[in-house]
Amino acid sequence: MACRRRLEWEEPAISGIIPVKRPGLSFGWSVSFTDSNILEKANGDICSLTHTFLISLVPTTGGARINLQVGIGAMVNKGKTRAKANGEAPFNAQDFLDSAGVARSVAVFEKKEKIFSQGDICRDVLYIQKGGVRLSVVNEAGKEAVVAILGPGDFFGEGCLAGQPIRIATAIAVAPTTALVIEKKEMIRVLHYEHAFSDRFITYMLSRNIRIEEDLVDQLFNSSEKRLARTLLLLARYGTEDRPQRVLPKISQETLAEMVGTTRSRVNFFMNKFRKLGFIKYNGGLQINTSLLSVVLHD
Q1: Is there a single domain that holds both residue 16 and residue 127?
Q2: Sequence-ordered strand ranges (E) for the chain
Q3: Domain end point (choices 44, 77, 110)
Q4: What are the tens digits of pLDDT across the range 240-254?
């Protein structure tokens, strides 16, 4: 089945300069390079059409001779079809970032280990594979505020893509964490050429922006009790496409107080109240029940 449209084109890449030896003659040189066209077949399969050129400069008794060899190859990737809006599986950012086409490194952080500090130079974007990360800011007086607790599937450090020269927050692992580190230049390249990934990333950033607006409204108009209940539900990822995380890893009341914008004593009072009402449980971790929604929805 013929390929019906080109999806992308890769610049020619020199694969190597190779010494050539002919019997009875001195050494010559050859250079090869390859260009690729990535196309989509009518049935949705992705195929790659590759041209390989080998140019050789070979000495002869009367001078030199140039040889040109051209090779054409094609490869069809079954199952590599792009996701469509007709009920097929959505684009998976993790699978894409795990592919060999994205230049990235894997970093492992211990619990409470600092990933980057407020004021550090922005050089890369990070994607959380497992674990959790706390983002916090400190003012000139030394007062700290937690602005976000992130989990698997979240990006952070993306400010470098918008020209942010330094980090405006400190990132600390709240649990043993594994993250992909993608350099700024590589991230920009991937966003430019991989449309499915750029769509996923834009959707994520819009969701983060909506979340920040909701946090501001929550801080301005809701009581500390409602703010704490909402924070716990968000940490458990209720209301997202992910399956809710009913049991949270251990998180201190000091951290919750910084996130909510209240004192530790108030957090302790409300946590005890939620426990007595059956909204939360302590059982090897903090278990969040859906009934906690009643606190947020109650006028």
Answers
A1: no
A2: 3-20, 28-41, 46-60, 63-77, 105-109, 114-116, 124-130, 133-138, 144-150, 155-156, 170-173, 177-183, 247-248, 280-282, 286-288
A3: 77
A4: 655 556 677 778 898
